Structure formats: structure tokens, C-alpha cells
Amino acid sequence: MAKRVYETWKGSNKFILGGRLIFGPDARSLLVTLLLILVPVIIFCAFVARHLRHELLQHNVGYVILVVAIVFTIYVLVLLFLTSARDPGIIPRNLHPPEEEIRYDSSYDIGGRQTPSLQFPRIKEVTVNGYTVKVKYCDTCMLYRPPRCSHCSICNNCVERFDHHCPWVGQCIGLRNYRYFFMFVSSATLLCIYVFAMSALYIKVLMDADGTVWKAMKESPASVILMAYCFISLWFVGGLTGFHLYLIGTNQTTYGNFRQRADNRRNVFDQGCLNNFLEVFCTKVKPSRNNFRAFVQEEVQRPTPSPAPRDGVAAEDLGVDARSKVEDDLDIGEDLLKISQRRNIDELDEDIRSRGSNGPPNNILDADSVLGSDHRAPTIQSDARDHSSWGRRSGSWEIAPEVFANSNVTESRSYVAAKEARQ
After folding, report:
1. Contact, 249 vs 276, CB < 8 A?
2. pLDDT value at residue 394
3. What is said about the domains (predicted)?
4. Given this model, what pLDDT does residue 105 score?
5. Separation between Cα atoms, residue 233 and residue 241, nearest integer Å
6. How open is the CA angle 44-50-54, to the nearest 5 degrees?
7. Which partner from 19, 112, 235, 338 sits 20 to 30 angstroms from 121, CA to CA?
8. Which residues of the chain have pLDDT under 70?
9. What is the CA radius of gyration of the chain?
């Protein structure tokens, strides 16, 4: 049965509801975030807002305070869900490296033979707003990352307009969920301010009734705890909101801001404060590049390059392993070169006799048959031509086919002349 994309996903993400929702690998941290939001709100509704209904009866102000707290909390939770349960802008991985960027270089293996190796330029240059920006190649995803894209080591994905990986929402923050992340953080800040203000209001109401602050705090310790909790939380979510307001106004990301300060780079994405805010909040969210519920298509095996069959070479010979064929070619080439370099007739005679004695009697040829036959030299020449083509393909050795043919005929004639001189 065919599997779906989310079932064979190579990243570290977690999927639920059949791939409809995607989370980061640390999605369990969402439970902590939910507790940090829900527990204070529940305490506020039970011990503060419920009493304010009776203290502020005019125009049903007490009920309004309770309803606003509940609705605003639901709004914050929805933004948290939209931030953590959607594709942040993952760029799909390539199945193969980009062929147009492949460069062939030569390297030496252990045997000292030269073999081709693939080389990729690690950096490319692109133009953004009239400025040159360098983009890097990702070995894991086998693609060149677009500007401001980075590979998240936690999710193991390349994320477009990568801001950071937030452990509190258990998801990367990128192009498709940054807007909701900022709205979540800013809304959480407003919720803290609201709970803090209403708790202080209840303390003020109790002070008017009891006369002192200490009596009011003793009567409603929940209000004191909520005020302390909201005050501490404001340093985190409030500071985060202010920092991201600065990033949005200058069209930066958290990751890019740290890199820019470290490398003293120019911000080429800044389009002015107003345009930067419009880009984040008023542009349409791009659709996801991934269809996690789609069925996985079988990968089509790309044909491996092989030498075309030549005249005199059987087609089945091309199926031999390339490495073993190159080694055989090298051995044959060495033998032929040794023969072509010999000047001692006795060594040549002994070599031919020894080679002939190793095979069947029908394979022993005299000098007349060597000169008079049109079969031996062309056969070696065609083989040498094929081996030479392999040598040029592999980059390991290169010998002209004429060397083999000429050397064979030359030595054969030398052998005949020597035989006639003896007689």
C-alpha cells in the first residue's frame, strides 16, 4: 500500500490527524505553555473576577471583566495553535543534487589512479533589492537555501525566512507562522497586563472596604499571587514583544539580527518602517510547499551514463563493472607498452613463445601469419580504441589507439627480420 508524505517524512516533525497538523519534535513543551496560560486565568476567574461581579454591579461591569478574560484567553490559545500546528515554511528536500551545479574534479584513490569526483560550489550569489547576497548549499536538503532561509538543527528542515526555533510553542518560526507568533506573544503580554490590572482593582476595592492594604492582601491572597506572576511574566513576553517590534520595523529576523551584528552586515531587506509592517501583517500568507497527505510517488531511477557500443564491441561487454574494466585496460596497456619499448630480439622471441605456450596450440602464430593476416592488428586496435575511450571518460589514463597498432606491426616486422637473419 502506498504511503503518504508525512509517513515517510525525513525531518524530525510530529504529525497528528493523518498529517493535517504538523508540530516540532519538542511538541510536549506545549503542555507547559498551556499550563502557564490556563492556570493563572482559572485562578483569576475563580477568586477575582467572580467576586468583582458582586462588587461592581453598576452596568454589569463585573460580568464584563469575567467575559473579557475568558474570550481573550481563548484568543491567545487560538494564536498559539496557529503558530505551533502549521507548516512554518519548510522547503521540500531534493531527491538529487542540482545537476546544473555539478562540477567534475579529479582526485586520487589509494591505488594512485585518477578518478572523477563531484564538486558543488558551497556559495552562490543572488541579488536582493540591488545588493548581492550570498546563499549557501545545504548538504542535508540538497538545495541552495533562499535568502534568509536556514536549516533548523532541531526540526532538521530548511525553513524559509527562518526566525528561530521556539521551545515554548514547539515549532520553528518562519515565513508562514511568524505573524501568528508575534500576535500570540503580544496578546499574551496584553493578557498579563489585564489580569494584573484587574487583580490590583480587586485589592483596591477590598482596601476601600477594610481600610488597609495588608487586610486586603490577607483577604485575597490569590490577587497578590496573580499580580506577582504577571509582573514576572511581563519581563519575558513584554520584552519579547518589544524586541520583535524592532525586528519588524527594520525587516529583520532573530537569526539574521544576531548574524548581522556578529558579521557587521548590511540589512538589504529594509524597505522602510511602514512597508516592513505591511509586509508582515497585510500580505497574504503563502501556501505550503508541502502536501503532507499526498501519496509518495515512486522515485524514477535515473539512467547511469554508459559508453555507447562501438564496432567490434559486444553490447553485453558494456555491463562490466567500470572499475574492473579500467583495471583490465591498464594491465593490457602496460603489456603493450612494454612490448613496444623492447629492443632485444631474444627477449621478444622468448616473450612471444611464452605467451603462445600458455594457450592452446591453435593460438600460436608465426611471423608470416602475423604480417599476412588482417585480423590480429585490427582487433587490438578496436579494443584499444574502446579502452582509450574509457580512459578519457574516467580521467585515469589516455593512450592513443595508434600506439597499440603501430607498436604491434613494428615488433612483428622486427621479429621476421631477426628470424631471416638467423637462417
Report:
1. yes
2. 36
3. The DHHC domain is required for palmitoyltransferase activity.
4. 54
5. 12
6. 140
7. 112
8. 1, 57, 99-120, 299-423
9. 39
Per-residue confidence (pLDDT) for residue 348, from 0 to 100: 47
CA geometry: angle 99, 103, 107, nearest 5 deg: 135
Residue 353 has a pLDDT of 56
* C-alpha span between 133 and 116 (Å, rounded): 31
User: Which cell numbers hold the place of 157?
Assistant: 528542515
**Alpha-carbon span 335 to 83, nearest angstrom:** 71
Residues 6 or more apart whose CB falls under 8 angstroms from that of 98 comprise 142, 143, 144
Q: What are 359-362's contacts with CB under 8 Å, separation 24+?
A: none
| Residue 408: per-residue pLDDT | 46
Neighbour tally for 246: CB within 10 Å: 10
And the C-alpha cell for 233?
511574566
Q: Which amino acid is at 25?
A: P
Report d(CA 256, CA 145) in Å as an integer: 14
Burial class (CB in 10 A: 0-12, 13-18, 19+), 1: exposed
- What pTM value is reported for the model? 0.67
| 25 contact partners, CB below 8 Å, separation of at least 6 | 12, 13, 14, 154, 155, 170
Amino acid at 34: L
| Residue among 153, 202, 152, 160 nearest 178 (CA) | 160
**CA 199 from centre of chain:** 49
Adjacent-strand bridge partners of 172: 165
Cell of 144: 541552495
Q: Are 93 and 143 in contact (CB under 8 A)?
A: yes
| pLDDT of res. 328 | 52
Residue 109, classified by CB atoms within 10 Å of its CB into exposed (0-12), middle (13-18) or buried (19+), is: exposed
Q: How far is the CA of 168 from the CAs of 28, 133, 220, in angstroms?
A: 9, 32, 31
Specify whether the CB–CB gap between 84 and 92 falls below 8 A: no
- Tell me how far apart the alpha carbons of residues 49 and 64 are, in angstroms, rounded to a whole number: 9
Gap between the Cα atoms of 263 and 338, Å rounded: 61
Q: Count Cα atoms within 13 angstroms, Cβ side, for 349.
A: 9
DSSP state for residue 125 in the 8-state scheme: E
User: Are 148 and 256 contacting, i.e. CB atoms less than 8 angstroms apart?
Assistant: yes
Catalytic residue numbers? 166
Classify the C-alpha dihedral 260-264-268-274 as positive or negative: positive
